[in-house]
Amino acid sequence: MMKTSQKEHLNVDLVIIGAGSGGVAAAIAAGRLGITVLLVEKQHGLGGNASLGGVNVWEMGVGGTGIPFEIYKRLKTKADGVGIYRFNIHRKWQLKRGEQPLHPGAELTIDPSLRYIDTLLRHGSETGIDNEAFVRANWHGVPFDPHAYQEVLGELLAEPGCISVRLGTTFKRVIDDGNGRLRAVELDDGTLVHARYFIDATDNAYLCAAAGAQLCVGQESRDVYGEPDAPLQPTQRLNGVSLIYRIGDAGNGKLPVSAAELDAVPGQCWWAADFPLASIVQYPNGDLNVNMLPTMEGVEFAGFERYETAYAECRRRVLAHFRYLTETYPPYRNYVIKWIAPRLGVREGRRIVATYQLTQHDLLKGLTGQDHPDSIAIADHPMDTHGSTTGRAGCVELDQPYGVPFRSLIPKGFRNLLIASRAAGFSSLAASSCRLTRTMMQLGQAAGTAAGLASEQDSDFSELDPAKLRESLKQQHVQLTYPMDDHLKNYLTHE
Fold first, then answer.
1. Mean pLDDT, to the nearest integer, of 262-288?
2. Cβ neighbour number for residue 307 with a 10 Å cutoff
3. For residue range 135-169, what is the model confidence (pLDDT) as tens digits?
4. Using 50, 70 and 90 to split pLDDT, how confident is the model at 250?
5. Which residue of 192, 238, 314, 329 has the fewest C-beta atoms within 10 A of its own C-beta?
6. What is the DSSP letter of 235?
7. Is the dihedral angle over the CA atoms 16, 17, 22, 25 positive or is it negative?
8. Residues facing 166 on adjacent strands
9. Confidence (pTM)
10. Residues 140-163: b if buried by 16+ CB within 10 A, e if exposed
11. What is the DSSP letter of 409?
12. 273-284 burial string, b = 16+ CB within 10 Å, else e?
């Protein structure tokens, strides 16, 4: 008689799909509350865009406390693990002063005198990058080595003792009761995982989509939410896509690009009128992280049938851009490409329709004008788009931070499912602001904490007491008010 293979069955308290910023933070927070967690990731590494996508920099902004600060402290124990940057050069400032040679964008260099607390501010510049004095004094971000970053994430996930991680794995189907409650997911290796709670931490709301949640993509028309800067008609325009690469002295390592491959690429920009400006950030070891803003328009990326084809085209653009850097800016003349991110940095995709949709109105009202009792994260990044086809290219700075309600993490009509990624309940305009790594970690920390609290009282997510959730987050050193209270400020000064 032929033996039939038996599917593996698992029972856990929480399943998290996606081990990017939101998923990792959710797993750590939930594990620390003592519930069993299975974290599933289709890539063969942790961290998502912040490691595999080359976004090895946390931009400045309020709210990046809690788990991000713990990661920063752990990175400081690794050789060349992390630093804090200061704006050194910007092309706009050079143009005002008539300086030559013109930088191909901006260079941000590590300043050892800066502390983590110095990175927790963005708003207040009014004119953005044009306000050179404000930017030099206040805009400081956190560049880190991606390999050290993944090592730290692995350590933090292992420490609670109740978190299992499956890399190179995804799910095939969702099992639900037809009444807004998920029961199980079947993984692509045949494992059937039953759980009480589920978190979608994927960049494109894959779990929510499989469960039948309502989704949206592109720009909503103005009449949907009454946002003053939304287009009159809906569009399929998307924020731009970047392929980030690393340059530095040649050293002794094997380089990812041969001289022949580099010479075979045209030395001019064939996809736009000119090369885009680039943000060039110093790594802790002295290398430079190069981010074209953007490498490819969002709509163009969406038009590719195969991801691999889009990546290959972006790689050719990276090589052309590197030639441009070395040929037009003498300080980079002897640099080589040392690494190209294995994944594209995609800024925008599908989003869910949530119990509450965060919109431009929330961003403009700020904390002083919002009345959400369930804000679980704060942010002050501008409405920030990259690419000429978005219809609103550039940054629109905010006057104050805003809060993100917990309800924006609950897909409409669902009871035991949350989302903790850039695909959460945001309008397109709000998503252009609320998409940075540390903000996604805040959403993840809130979602994981909510799962722990819901498990404790055997309730649906919508039944949680928001005051209790917020209090738990505050105990985890998550900033929910602005200005920062003295207790949290004292905590952050002890690096």
1. 95
2. 12
3. 999 999 999 999 999 999 999 999 999 999 999 99
4. confident
5. 192
6. B
7. positive
8. 40
9. 0.96
10. bbbbbbbebbbbbbeebbeebebb
11. G
12. eebbbbbbbbbb
The CA-based angle 51-66-371, given to 5 degrees, is 115
The type of residue at 90 is H
- pLDDT band for position 313 (cuts 50, 70, 90): very high
Tell me the C-alpha distance between 480 and 63, whole Å.
7
Nearest residue to 382 via CA among 400, 402, 403, 398: 398
* Phi and psi angles of residue 154, each rounded to the nearest 5 degrees, phi first: -60, -40
Per-residue pLDDT tens digits for 403-450: 999 999 999 999 999 999 999 999 999 999 999 999 999 999 999 999
The residue to which tokens 């593996």 are assigned: 8
Q: CA–CA separation, 408 vs 138, rounded Å?
A: 30
DSSP of 152-213: HHHHHHHTTS-EEEEES--EEEEEE-SSS-EEEEEETTS-EEEEEEEEE--TT-HHHHHTT-
DSSP state letter for 349: -
Q: Taking each helix axis as running N to C, give the angle between helix 67-75 and helix 146-158, from 0 to 180 degrees, rounded to the nearest 10.
A: 120
Q: Could you tell me if 140 and 86 are in contact, meaning their C-beta atoms sit under 8 angstroms apart?
A: yes
Contact 314, 243 (CB under 8 A): yes
175 bridge partner residues: 184
Share of the chain above pLDDT 70, in %: 97
- Distance separating alpha carbons of residues 164 and 174, to the nearest angstrom: 19
Ramachandran region, residue 45 (left: φ > 0; alpha: ψ -120 to 50; beta: rest): beta
Q: How far apart are CA 298 and CA 300, in angstroms?
A: 5
Each residue of 74-118: pLDDT tens digit? 999 999 999 999 999 999 999 999 999 999 999 999 999 999 999
